UniProtKB/TrEMBL annotation:
Catalytic activity field: 2 superoxide + 2 H(+) = H2O2 + O2
Listed GO MF terms: copper ion binding; superoxide dismutase activity
Needed co-factor(s): Zn(2+); Cu cation
Source organism of this protein record: Agrilutibacter terrestris
Stored Pfam families: Sod_Cu (PF00080)
Superoxide dismutase copper/zinc binding domain boundaries: 57-184
UniProt name for this protein: Superoxide dismutase [Cu-Zn]
Ion transport among keywords: no
Cited function: Destroys radicals which are normally produced within the cells and which are toxic to biological systems.
Cofactor stoichiometry and binding remark: Binds 1 zinc ion per subunit.
């Protein structure tokens, strides 16, 4: 077999192999019985609430079984720990952000920790500020989607609280005042 023909055969075999291995990425695949996200992502601009100076920018991306929330939040006390939740209403107009309502809870579960038994769809792990008062956020919300259905978080709000979530107290983890709020805006 000539060198040119051998190279062509190997190239075709490689392309066929790549096509056979190609699947939908796991970050957009829903588990059986769950709705799938139809939006590619979302953004949140957090603004101060309850007289705080806390603000930030977050990105939200679909993952298997939920969404990943990442970004930065500044204006926090150095080394402080704070709860962060998705709330049911996309309304941050009240000075104390109470207009955002309670935690988003489409499955009507008790408050808890995402990934550790029953929890609200809006429950996420606490965030921790560094020595400069900035929290680098990388948390997940499970059982929610972006872009449609009863579990859709598009148009709802993310709220940062003054205290950490204890993951047990009902209905909101004893997380304290709402110190920042932002509406989840789906990407076009």
């Amino acid at each position: 077999m000539s060198t040119v023909l051998l190279r062509r055969s190997l190239a075709v075999a490689g392309l066929v192999g790549l096509a056979a291995c190609s699947t939908t990425p796991s970050h957009t695949t829903a588990r059986a019985g769950e709705a799938a996200s139809t939006a590619s992502g979302a953004t949140v601009t957090l603004t101060p609430a309850s007289g705080s100076l806390i603000s930030g920018k977050l990105d939200i991306a679909p993952i298997a079984g939920g969404v990943r929330v990442s970004g930065e939040i500044g204006g926090l006390a150095r080394g402080s720990t704070h709860a962060i939740h998705i709330h049911e209403k996309g309304d941050c107009s009240a000075a104390d952000a109470t207009s955002a309502g309670g935690h988003f809870n489409p499955a009507q579960q008790a408050h808890g920790r995402a990934g550790s038994g029953p929890h609200h769809g809006g429950d996420m792990d606490n965030i921790v500020a560094d020595g400069n008062g900035v929290a680098r956020v990388d948390v997940r919300a499970l059982g929610v989607t972006l872009g449609g259905g009863a579990t859709d978080i598009g148009g709802r709000a993310i709220v940062v609280h003054a205290a950490p979530d204890d993951y047990a107290s009902q209905p909101a983890g004893n997380a304290g005042a709402r110190v920042a709020c932002g509406v989840i805006k789906l990407l076009p």
